[in-house]
Amino acid sequence: MKIDVMTKDKDIKTVVPALRFPEFRDGEGWKRTPILEICEIIGGGTPTSSNDVYWNGDIPWISSSDINENNISEITPTRHITKDAIKNSATKLCKAPSIHIVSRVGVGKVAFSRVDICTSQDFTNLCNINCNYIFLSYLLSIIMKQKVQETQGTSIKGIASAEIKNLHVPLPEIEEQQRIADCLSSLDDLISSVADKIETLKEYKKGLMQQLFPAEGKTIPAIRFPEFQNKGEWEEAILGDYVEIKGRIGYRGYTTNDIVEKGEGAISLSPTNITDNGELIFNKCTYISWVKYNESPEIMLDRGYVVLVKTGSSYGKSALVKQLPQKTTINPQIVILKPQKMNDVFLSLLISHNLIQKQINKAIVGGAIPTLSQDSISKFKILIPKIEEQKKIAEYLLSVDELISTETDKLDQLKAHKKGLMQQLFPKLQ
Questions:
Q1: What is the pTM of this model?
Q2: Could you give the angle at the alpha carbon of 282 between the alpha carbons of 306 and 399, nearest 5°?
Q3: What's the confidence (pLDDT) of residue 89?
Q4: 392 within 8 A of 386, measured Cβ to Cβ
Q5: Which of these, 166, 172, 159, lies nearest to 110 by C-alpha position?
Q6: With b meaning 16 or more CB within 10 Å and e meaning fewer, what string describes 259-272?
Q7: HSE-up of residue 232 (Cα within 13 Å, Cβ side)
Q8: Contact at 8 Å (CB) between 185 and 112?
Q9: Which of 108, 172, 188 lies closest to 421 in space, CA to CA?
Q10: How far, in Å, CA of 37 to CA of 170, rounded?
Q11: What count of other Cβ atoms lies within 10 Å of the Cβ of residue 41?
């Protein structure tokens, strides 16, 4: 796709984006237009929840959580209201097409609807739109993100409807609006397609694990690779017979005085470094001094170890250590599982399996801070095949993980491309 660069405003009352499609490169600048000249702005409302006459009708009614933050065309209504609700309450009907800005809870999200719809009072809604509504949705999403950034660190919790009504938005001719809308919509469709593929692969992996591991009460999996069909039952054992479990010893804990800046010490892994999908991320890390790191060699992380959260609200999360950006240890909320007579990838899969997760939930000691003891972890009951079958299962599921990782990288690249494209296709907004 070829887009030309534009460098100067042609008129103080107009603005010009950095990039323009070839057919518009010699066109006029975008005119700053009061938003109330191109649409009607109305609020939303919530019918009384106790009045059954107002609910379970045919008209979609949305709250902030029904909007996809990453795609302005995706609205998933979870509730519907009746015509009586619109007639007898503060709720107003937004005739399609309409644009919906979350101006309070979840502030800044923007979406458009192609069907008649109602919203909660957390929205400011644009109806009777006299320009390309998809183009305007993308433009408003940029403006809203900018306004959210401007209010960060302040006591302001939303964007006033009056502020939106006072907006002057830069508009090109309708043909250029359509071209930009088509370009960004096709990119969003591609992003959604890749995201859907990732979710499909995750569900596929989840189903595979249910089949490749024995179900509860069974000792043989439902699906077995041909070479292991007649190899007998999986062995019943306890986890402690196959792994070495290490955690941070209490008297070797650390305080804020041991925390240092990046580059001055080792990473101290915390639950926030473990994703819900069992991956390690290192974009935000805590670092402790080299003295404190070297004090506990038994909890220095290495490739092939599995980390498990044993304390706090995210207990049970785990991840395989595939690679490390630098020397790394663990904080007191995490334990290390070092495989002794078990394939490391298989161990990681086993810990995330329902059979282990159920035992984790039973072994948790309640209270203000849920806690899992190392002793209880070592006593978890497991079913395990011979090492060759472990490796086969690990390799197969790892190949699915690699597909998921490839598609995730692709998704991140597409999102970054879209962000950069939007910065160029729209003028800088003051």
A1: 0.83
A2: 55
A3: 86
A4: no
A5: 159
A6: ebeeeebbbbbbbb
A7: 6
A8: no
A9: 188
A10: 12
A11: 18
